[in-house]
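call fold(seq) -> C-alpha cells
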Amino acid sequence: MWGLLEHLSKVPGTRADGSIDTSALLAWIIAVRDGCAAAGRQASGDRRIGKLLGKAPAGKDGIWPDPAVRDALDAIGTEEVNSGFHTGKYNSRGVHWRALGGGQERELAKKFRDDAEAIRLDHPFTARCLRELADDYDHQGRWHDTDEAVRKRLGRP
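ret:
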C-alpha cells in the first residue's frame, strides 16, 4: 500500500477531461484508509492521501482544489491529511525561478486566501487548510524580503 501511495501522480477518480469523480475518489479513500488502519498505519496513510490530494487540479470554478478533493478533505478532516495536503501542494510547485523578494509567495498566499474565502461555508476544513498554506507562504515571502535586504546591505546579488 505504501509504495502505491508514494508513486501515484494523479488523483484517483480523475476522468479523461481532467475532472474528478467524487464517488470514485471517496470510495478509493475509504479503501485505502481501511487498509492503512488494518496495518496500524492510519496516520501515515492520511498524510500520504493528503500529499496526493495536494497535487489535484483546480476546479472548473477556478478555485483550488477541485470540488471532489474539497469533499474528500472535509470528509477525512484529520491533521495528518492537512499536513500531507500542505506538503503535496508545496512540492507540486517544483523548481521555480524567482525575482528578488517575496512577491511570488505573497501572490500565492493571496490566491489561497481568496479560494479559502470562496469555499469557507461549504468546505470549512479545506478552507482552513488553504488559510494555513497562505500563512506559510506569507512567512516565506517575509523571509525572502529579509534575505533580499540583507544581500543588498552586503552588496551581494
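The helical segments are 2-7, 22-38, 42-53, 67-76, 79-92, 103-119, 124-154.
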